[in-house]
Design brief:
By secondary structure, the chain is α/β, with parallel strands linked by helices. It is built from 3 helices and 7 strands; from the N terminus they run βαββαβαβββ. The strands form 2 sheets. It has a 4-stranded mixed β-sheet, with helices on one face. The relative contact order is 0.18.
């Protein structure tokens, strides 16, 4: 038997806010997903991003509580150009999302920025600085 990586799951406090945030990043959640206790969007390569409300998780794991303090993970989204990193960062922060790290030219050769989703999960935005890509 071999396990295969299939999905990333996030527990969310507000499904509508989270679906709206990830739709701004280009993820195709189905119509009406913002009103559901569980939502999924397909990602390239067949991986899925799954969102579950806190209530949904407690329905099968009653002792579950949100973690205290900062997160230890982030999602990373590759943009086509450095300018797209800047534009997407401005769009998201202009819509009220928290900008954790403004766009900058990282020493490892990427235009790089971090925004937080509505639950404080880090979302890295990056693009190669050179045409050869990284």
């Amino acid at each position: 038997m071999t396990a295969r990586f299939d999905a990333v799951g996030l527990v969310v406090s507000d499904m509508a806010a989270s679906v709206t945030f990830y739709r701004r990043l280009g993820l195709a959640f189905p119509e009406g997903a913002e009103d559901q206790p569980h939502a999924e969007a397909g990602l390239p390569g067949g991986i899925r991003l799954m969102l579950d409300t806190e209530e949904t998780v407690r329905s099968f794991h009653p002792a579950w509580r949100p973690p205290a303090g900062g997160g230890r993970h982030s999602l990373a989204l590759r943009c086509d150009t450095p300018g797209e990193v800047d534009a997407l960062y401005e769009e998201l922060t202009g819509a009220g999302c928290h900008g954790e790290l403004k766009p900058w030219d990282a020493v490892w050769g990427q235009r790089y920025a971090v925004v937080n989703d509505p639950d404080g999960n880090g979302v890295d935005l990056f693009a190669p600085l050179s045409a050869s890509g990284q």
